[in-house]
User: Fold MFS transporter from Streptomyces spectabilis.
Amino acid sequence: MESRERFAVFRDRDFSVFFVGYVTSNLGTSMASVALAFAVLHNDGSPTDLSLVLAARIVPMVLLLLGGGVLGDRLPRRLVMLVADSVRALSQGALAVLLLIGPVPLWVVLTLAACGGVGEALFRPSFDGLVPQLAPKDRLPEANSLLGMAQSAASVGGPALAGVLVAFTSAATVLLVDALSYVVSVGALLMLRAGNQAPDSGGSSMVAELRAGWRAFSAHTWLWTVTLQFTLFNLLVWAPYLVLGPVSASRSYGGSEAWGLIVGTFGGGSLLGGLLLLGRRPSRPLVVTTLITFLWAAPSAALAVRAPLWTVCAAALAAGVSSAVFNSLWMTTIQQHVPADSLSRVMSYVTFGAYSVGPVGLALAGPLAEQTSIGLILAIGVGWQVLANSVVLMLPAVRNLHAPNADQGESATENSAESAESSTPDVPAT
Assistant:
């Protein structure tokens, strides 16, 4: 594919408008994660208070994700996202104003943080379902790559920019910027032509629609298998890495500067992975994602054996590249093979799996490492990732799933996908 064709999706007005709002709100969110920590600590908060604030955002997001998926398939997705971003703009704006006025009681901070989690639970499933409505079918891989690159860029640049702004202004100012970023996103959503039609729910109850979404999710062997693998990856590999990585950097590599370099290198790898994938459409995407995600274990392996810092950074770079490639191909594959009228519900189950056990891993990694060793806990994660990837790679449902129009017709692709599944037929939501 020619270089200019890799960005041809921007010719679509709806996608271009949405992209601007998405980039802006992601940058604001990445900045706010740093600002919120300083806001709590500067408000005479303790590390325990900060943990409570972070939990107050995550818990409602996890609990309400499945309901957000139902709403994304029952109501116009653009409307659900408008409500979600409005809630987040108001909650962040209110917190910023209160912090500018004076000290804020912890319960107020917890309440507003929970509102942000509610907004995320509403936004994410509808976002996953809206993207195929914004980009032409033949440009969907590029659309997902570009959106992933935008998120990676925000995750790298946002915290750095927030650190500068907090130093020269205040945490409240950064939170106000985040609130304004959601306002920009709301404006972009208001300008969209797509996403205004609600799928026909047939008058079903929310519980019935959740069950239908589960049937649509569980009918695809490749879908629930990779979701389960990713869920356990978060528990056994990624959560210990996030907790024990900074500790290892402090003990073996000189401190926070080394950890910042490792994290920044991972973010740079994510950007590089998005660029490398643009215009490339593998015929068997899940084979590619499974092979490349062996690299997810590389940073943990390097830290476990106390490799030189440059080796750890190289491992983080490789993991960042693989993360971007996986996310883009995974999202595109789901959007191409899951019926549009159940896509938000299916994605809510996928996302729920990704988030549900992560906090457990975060809570257990530190105590387990104290009882054994950092190297052992990280090595267990590495061994698990290699074993899990090897098992997934042997599954016919993963190996035989073809991308539409890759090297065969779309109808033939669907037939090959179905033959790769178990005997259970594809169950669209009703």
User: Anything to note?
Assistant: Residues 406-430 have pLDDT under 50 and may be disordered.
